[in-house]
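Page 47, continued from p. 46.
Same chain as before, 331 aa.
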Amino acid sequence: MLKQLKRERWLSSGISVGIIALTVFSSLSHVAWHPYLELTAHFKVQYFLISFIGLSLLLLFQAKYWLVIALFCLGVQLVEILPWYLPATWTTTSTANFRILLSNVYVRNQNPHKFLNLVAKEQPNLVIVQEKTPFWLESLQPLHAQFPYFFQAPDDIAIFSQIPLEQPTIFGGVNQSSLAVTLTIDDRPVQVVTTHPPPPKPTLTASRNQEFEWVANYIQQQRGSIILIGDLNTTMWSPYYNQLKRKTGLVNGRQGFGILPTWPAPTPYTSTSSLLAFFKPFLWIPIDHCLVSPEIGVRSLRTGANIDSDHLPLVVDVFIPAQERLESGTS
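Result:
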């Protein structure tokens, strides 16, 4: 009996130290300006779930002293997660008048039929495809009947639209371009900016952050309503993401709809080893985003069906107020 109590005390101490360490990792996101340190910022949900399991074990062991510390740590972690599930003050109850479908289709994906079926099901007004290849451009030809307006970057992104695309612009890096187009919705011009910076690898962080800088500078020079959407290859807990958000003055449409992880989705075209594939279900993080000007109301933001890409699509319904309605101060 004495040995068992001693073992439980050691286990309680070890579990508690682990929860404290995970809380420290979770809190590092506020100072994670180093490429390797930033990697600790993305897994707050995983830190919380592991800590919660640890808390359950402490309850089982009746370790009252450690329970207080563990509860405090979980509270600290929850501060970074819970707000995404609370209703946003700017989220509109008005009926959406514009739907966007964003999809990183994945360069290795050889099954366009699932994506075409998704478009047919969701009936968006605007489709943004990232990681397009010549194969995908050829496969998506049927979309032109429903989306007669088309614009693409030479390297990565394509836009299909039911609404005329005005002032199409390409900016950013030579091999990693961003696109901007203006659409008129209910007599109100809205600029849609889409970008796909390099993946979140420490060796590519500088290139990704440079892309963020180009996007922020471009948006700062614009007037009117903006929608920024794309696979940003970072989570909303990254300090670089928050810097982009501060510079542009945009708000994340996820607010009120949850964490909504989008990567890494299960795909038969994976390039990873079987060992890494085993761990992928535990690594889900939200790296596809839609940020909007505060006057644009987000009616719904959700993930779409799996299309055999390593990303889940993002479906966003927004309400864009008419110009006269905005000027009169109503929504």
